[in-house]
Design a protein that fits this description.
Length: about 350
């Protein structure tokens, strides 16, 4: 199919307008700093790890800011992908809209500023019960220890934000929707409202499996959303966990993609597309009952700085072309390009402009 966005033969490219890409998820303020071993030891952190903050890490976020030179970035999986898509598109600004929950605090103000700098149209639900979610990236030599405190991100309320007329109008303006699976733990009803809107209006709804634990422990939520999913993203470990829970009886990525594509779907005007990445190995895509593979861009291992943002970047690259109604091959090419750029840098950061053709 030459045109991914519509099942039609006249594939005229429409101009991308602001708010045409919509994301909703867990906004986190990324706080990055080069720290010393004493700091890691104090909070019993491993040099290379990703954990959720516990009570013993409460002071860490304030201390890292006081003690070390920090850099701030607008983070969280979905927000990262929207940010990357905007970077790939460049103009116009605010192609990407983002919804999520933050606190009425200093970190919330910084997050709003950082989202603005990334040219995304962030509309946060602000509440004062929980502080803004943060992710501390504690860097030592080549290692990064990530400590995430979801806090306010867990407090998103459909009726207090998504249902408000001015916010829902932004949802209606979009033609492509993306939500990472992590948000299934926060507000299933918000996801379903957006997914049903996309389906009823023949727009594209995209979801990411995000983590094996989502496939395992939030299976019911995931499967309530699945009938509305037009594009499903995941990596090989998430795909294996998904296949196990769905009793696909295979660990072969191509077979999993094929079976996930065939799951029941509400909007029959579109075939579901399943996109599974495998790190440095080829990307597997199932669409229209066919499975194709796409080799990733080669990179010298010594040029790899940090692979943490690779998945978010891949999706962001893919969405940047999807929202411009480009063919599937071009979406994958952009996805591989964005991931290749991001893994050469610390955190989900990028140069001023992409060098993508």
């Amino acid at each position: 199919m030459s045109c991914l966005s519509q099942e039609r033969t006249d594939c005229t490219k429409t101009e991308t307008h602001s708010n045409s890409l919509f994301g909703m998820g867990n906004p986190l303020l990324d706080i990055c700093a080069i720290v010393d071993k004493d700091f890691l030891d104090k909070y019993t952190l491993k040099p290379n790890d990703q954990i959720l903050a516990e009570d013993k890490h409460k002071e860490l976020f304030e201390e890292i800011v006081k003690k070390f030179k920090v850099e701030y970035h607008a983070g969280g999986a979905t927000q990262n992908s929207i940010k990357i898509a905007q970077w790939m598109i460049q103009q116009p600004h605010k192609v990407g809209t983002f919804f999520g929950c933050i606190g009425k605090d200093k970190f919330g103000e910084i997050l709003k500023e950082k989202a603005k700098e990334a040219h995304i149209d962030a509309h946060y639900y602000e509440q004062d019960e929980e502080p803004t979610g943060t992710c501390a990236a504690c860097i030592t030599a080549d290692n990064r220890s990530l400590v995430a405190n979801l806090a306010a991100a867990n407090c998103y309320k459909k009726e207090k934000h998504l249902d408000l007329e001015e916010n829902w109008q932004l949802v209606e303006k979009a033609k492509v929707y993306y939500i990472a699976g992590f948000f299934l733990t926060v507000s299933l009803e918000s996801i379903l409202k957006v997914a049903k809107h996309a389906s009823e209006n023949n727009k594209l709804f995209c979801l990411n499996l995000s983590a094996p634990f989502i496939c395992q422990f939030f299976k019911d939520n995931l499967m309530q959303v699945m009938p509305y999913v037009d594009v499903l993203f995941g990596n090989e470990t998430e795909a294996t966990a998904f296949a196990k829970e769905q009793e696909f009886e295979t660990e072969d990525t191509k077979e999993i993609a094929k079976k996930a594509q065939a799951l029941p779907k509400v909007n029959s005007k579109r075939h579901r597309i399943v996109v599974l990445t495998q790190g440095k190995d080829e990307t597997v895509i199932a669409s229209s009952d066919k499975v194709k593979t796409f080799p990733v861009l080669k990179i010298d291992p010594k040029d790899i700085v940090d692979t943490n943002g690779a998945g978010d970047a891949f999706v962001g690259g893919f969405l940047s072309e999807l929202v411009q109604e480009k063919p599937l091959d071009q979406c994958v090419k952009a996805a591989h390009y964005a991931a290749n750029v991001i893994i050469r840098r610390a955190g989900c950061t990028f140069p001023e402009k992409p060098d993508f053709k």
